[in-house]
């Protein structure tokens, strides 16, 4: 396994020794915060066939957070959803950068202006220094867009991507 793969940890509620960490020394989210975020993803996805993932890291490797989000989206193989309706919420905490990267289906359905306005709204919540509230509010907002354009269909819908938070270095 290459070094890049070892830097990514996927949180799971049944493995407390490896979740919520950027390093082995300091947890990033508390267990309650982690569960609140995952619950928001699950609640947002219950009314849509769309998928939401969150990737959190300390620093963005690129000048433009959207470029990093696009790379992560590809690395997580999020473009493989059947309807191309996955959305990645990317957050670089120490750099205070965020990006939303939407796959072709949902990006075209909602339109570029929707995503620009969504980021502006999200930044206003984050500016109040409540990161968990900002993340969960963002998840629900993304979920509403997915519900509008890709409503839940009990005959064909399945959870195509994991709901857990993915942590980078």
The percentage helix is 40-55%
Give me the CATH architecture, please: Roll
* Helical stretch tally: 6
Radius of gyration based on Cα positions: 15 Å
Q: Ends: how far apart?
A: 16 Å
Task: Write down the overall mean pLDDT.
Answer: 82
The number of distinct β-strands equals: 5
Question: Quick recap of the structure?
Answer:
The chain has helices spanning 3-6, 31-45, 65-75, 104-110, 112-126, 131-149, and strands spanning 9-10, 51-57, 86-92, 97-102, 166-167. With 169 residues, it is α/β, with parallel strands linked by helices.
Account of the 3D structure:
- This protein has one domain: Diaminopimelate Epimerase, Chain A, domain 1 (Roll).
- A five-stranded mixed beta sheet has the order 1-5-2-3-4, sandwiched between helices.
- It has helices at residues 3-6, 31-45, 65-75, 104-110, 112-126, 131-149; strands at 9-10, 51-57, 86-92, 97-102, 166-167.
- It is built from six helices and five strands.
- A hairpin with a 4-residue loop joins strand 3 (86-92) and strand 4 (97-102).
- Helix 2 packs parallel to helix 6 (131-149) and helix 5 packs antiparallel against helix 6 (131-149).
- The chain is 42% helix and 14% strand.
- The two termini are 16 Å apart.
- The chain is globular and about 40 Å long.
- The chain is α/β, with parallel strands linked by helices and 169 residues long.
């Amino acid at each position: 396994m290459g070094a890049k793969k070892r830097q990514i940890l996927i949180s799971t509620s049944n493995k407390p020794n490896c979740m919520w960490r950027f390093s082995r020394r300091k947890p990033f989210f508390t267990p309650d915060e982690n569960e609140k975020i995952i619950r928001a993803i699950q609640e947002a996805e219950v009314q849509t066939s769309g998928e939401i993932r969150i990737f959190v890291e300390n620093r963005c490797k690129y000048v433009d957070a959207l470029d990093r989000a696009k790379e992560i989206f590809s690395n997580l193989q999020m473009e493989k959803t059947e309807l191309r309706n996955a959305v990645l919420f990317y957050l670089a905490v120490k750099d205070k950068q965020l990006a939303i990267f939407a796959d072709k289906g949902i990006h075209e359905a909602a339109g570029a202006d929707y995503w620009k306005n969504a980021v502006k709204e999200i930044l206003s919540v984050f500016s109040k220094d409540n990161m968990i509230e900002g993340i969960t509010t963002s998840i629900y907002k993304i979920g509403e867009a997915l519900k509008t354009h890709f409503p839940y269909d009990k005959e064909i819908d399945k959870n195509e991507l994991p709901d857990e938070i993915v942590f980078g270095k």
